[in-house]
Structure formats: C-alpha cells, structure tokens
C-alpha cells in the first residue's frame, strides 16, 4: 500500500510510545479520601473492600502510608454516632468534634500533608440530607448556607487547607469565601463540588457513613437528593454551576461522579482556566473491586487506565479510593 501516513510508526517501540505520550499520572495528582470514626478499632466497610472507617490512630497510619507514596492531600469524612445527630446537624460546629480533632492530629504529625474537608450536613443530620429539611420536606437553601459557613470556619480553625463544599446549595461558595475572609482565612482555598450529580454511584459511601436519607421520622423526608444535586441528564447546567463557582471565588472546580461524567470534565476544561478535580466515587471503586475479586479484570491495569483517562478528559486532580494502590503501582512499574 502507498500510504501518506502510517500512525503505527510511532507505536512501534516503548521508547517511541513514551516520546509521544500526551498524559501521565503521578502520586501528586491524587487526593485520598479517608473515613474516620470515634472508635478505637478500624472497621472494614463491606461494600468497599480494602477501605475502612479508621480510628484516629488508623488515620495517622494511612496518612503515613500515603505520604511515603508521594500523595500530598487527603480528604476526611466522619461517621458520626447517631446520638450526636440532629435535624440541624449541630455537631458539625463542635470545635472539638471528630473532624477538627483529626485535622489537628494530621497537621501535628504530617504538617506538609494538605487536608481537604467536606462541607455539608449529611454526616451530622438525623434526616440524612446535606441541608436542613423543613417540616414540609423542603431542603432549605439559605438557612443551610448559614450553617455551612460556620462549619467551614470550624474546619479552617483546626488547620484545613482546602474547604470542600459538597452540599450543592446555591450561593455557598461566595458565602463561605466571605466567611473565611472575615475570620482571617483569606489564604485557605475552596475546592467546590461544582457539578455534583444526584447519582446512584454514591451508594457504598452512604453505607460507610450511615448517612443515607432517613426513612423513620415524622417529616416527609425526600428519599433522594435530586432537588439540590444535578440531574444526570444535564450538561449545560454544569457550565452554569462552573461559571458561578468561579465567579464566587472557588479555587478548584470538581466534577462528581467521575467515570460516567468524563464529558462534563472535558466541557468544563474548555470553559475555565481553574484547576479541575474529578471524584472517582465509591460505587466506581466498588465495581472495580468486585470484578477484580472474581478475577474478571486485571485490577492494576484497569485502575491505572481509568485514572489516566480522567487526566485525558481534562482533570488535574483525582479524588480516588485507589490512591495508595495506584501510587504504589506507579512507583513500582
Ligand atoms: C455528601 C457526600 C457524598 C459523597 C461525598 N460527599 C454523598 C452524597 O452526596 O450523598 C460521595 C462520595 C462517594 O460516593 O465516594 N455530601
């Protein structure tokens, strides 16, 4: 054949392939999510093989492992005891609560590790929603934002580096930015869950925190989060969210879930200069683990391929439960 172009020429050897490779992964791309609880024992999470709710001691051990692998950011999620939950999620304002305690401990032991937090009421709410639920079953926006600002300040005081509002209330980035600035935290960043979809992929996470919408109260509590999280059918709406988050002062924009939403990442990439994070969520993790346990896929290859594809789609950072495994595989190639 007389061909003008033979693209296979550049695929012929590992050296040539490496020369023209566009994207790569490194441990510093990862943000490692960690579940914590008040107990002294670590407790494995059935739906997420390899992941536990860590005691504070277990948490520090995980941070040490992550640090040694080159990971430089962790994000904390608390499992709060039922007796500390109420309708307004007041425990999120407790300066000596689980999250502030954990942040201080990490900062004391590993001051160089960046700590990201989650701002939302669901772990603390007896109703299991990210915001306050009115007696009519409406998730109240402005009243919730008020509490979220105070929650963010508690986290910043404890030493958090990046505040991560995951609640999807309108106007919360601006309000949190102003609240942080007023308290002298102008250098603490906001990584906003910008395009967070109402997704069934969060199932294992809600098991981990026991934070699913409640079914046992007298209020008509919505069974899903679709009045504040986005409809999976929508793409343009993600650009509206991104526009506002950016203008309200978000430092990093996040898309969540990740895998089924690569087009959203790509779209945001073309519409903003801010760094973009992808959240490779619990359900995505569990699917890979389940197939790997059955020997149906090569876990290492699938995980590294998936994470790389987030980069190709336009993400700079990836929140992933595979962070430590992936960092280990990258270092031992
Ligand atoms: C809650 C929150 C959720 C996740 C992160 N923060 C769950 C939800 O919105 O119900 C999900 C993360 C995952 O599934 O890994 N504000």
TrEMBL record:
Function: Catalyzes an early step in the biosynthesis of tetrapyrroles. Binds two molecules of 5-aminolevulinate per subunit, each at a distinct site, and catalyzes their condensation to form porphobilinogen.
Any one Gene Ontology molecular-function term assigned to this protein's record: porphobilinogen synthase activity
SMART domains: ALAD (SM01004)
Family classification: Belongs to the ALAD family.
Name of the protein in its database record: Delta-aminolevulinic acid dehydratase
InterPro entries cross-referenced by the UniProt entry: ALAD, ALAD_AS, Aldolase_TIM
Listed EC numbers: 4.2.1.24
Active-site residues annotated for this sequence: 196, 256
A Pfam family per the record: ALAD
NCBIfam families, per the entry: PRK09283.1 (NF006762)
Subunit description: Homooctamer.
Keyword tags: Heme biosynthesis, Lyase, Plastid, Porphyrin biosynthesis
PROSITE patterns, A to Z: D_ALA_DEHYDRATASE
Pathway annotation: Porphyrin-containing compound metabolism; protoporphyrin-IX biosynthesis; coproporphyrinogen-III from 5-aminolevulinate: step 1/4
SUPFAM superfamilies (alphabetical): Aldolase (SSF51569)
GO BP field: protoporphyrinogen IX biosynthetic process
Domain of life: Eukaryota
Catalytic activity of the protein: 2 5-aminolevulinate = porphobilinogen + 2 H2O + H(+)
This protein's GO CC annotations: cytosol
Coiled-coil regions listed in the entry: none
């Amino acid at each position: 054949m007389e061909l003008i172009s033979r693209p296979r020429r550049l695929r012929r050897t590992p050296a040539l392939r490496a020369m023209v490779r566009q994207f790569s992964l490194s441990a510093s791309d990862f943000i490692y999510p960690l579940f914590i609880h008040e107990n002294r024992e670590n407790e494995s999470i059935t739906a997420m093989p390899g992941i536990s709710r860590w005691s504070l001691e277990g948490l520090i051990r995980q941070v040490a492992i992550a640090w040694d692998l080159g990971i430089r950011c962790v994000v904390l999620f608390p499992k709060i005891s039922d007796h500390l939950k109420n309708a307004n999620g007041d425990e999120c304002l407790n300066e000596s609560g689980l999250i502030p305690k954990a942040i201080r401990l990490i900062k004391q032991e590993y001051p160089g590790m960046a700590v990201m937090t989650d701002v939302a009421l669901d772990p603390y709410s007896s109703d299991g929603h990210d915001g306050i639920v009115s007696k009519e079953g409406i998730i109240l926006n402005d009243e919730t934002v008020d509490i979220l600002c105070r929650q963010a300040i508690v986290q910043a005081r404890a030493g958090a580096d990046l505040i991560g509002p995951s609640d999807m209330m309108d106007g919360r980035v601006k309000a949190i930015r102003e609240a942080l600035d007023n308290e002298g935290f102008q250098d603490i960043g906001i990584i906003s869950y910008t395009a967070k979809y109402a997704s069934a992929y969060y199932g294992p996470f809600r098991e981990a925190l026991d934070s699913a919408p409640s079914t046992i109260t007298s209020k008509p509590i919505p069974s899903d989060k679709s009045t504040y999280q986005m409809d999976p059918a929508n793409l343009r709406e993600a650009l509206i969210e991104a526009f506002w988050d950016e203008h309200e002062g978000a430092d990093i924009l996040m898309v969540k879930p990740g895998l089924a939403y690569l087009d959203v990442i790509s779209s945001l990439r073309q519409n903003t200069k801010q760094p973009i994070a992808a959240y490779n969520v619990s359900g995505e993790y569990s699917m890979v683990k389940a197939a790997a346990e059955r020997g149906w896929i090569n876990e290492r290859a699938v995980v590294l391929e998936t994470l790389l594809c987030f980069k190709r789609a336009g993400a700079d950072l990836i929140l992933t439960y595979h962070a430590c495994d992936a960092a280990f595989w990258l270092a031992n190639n």
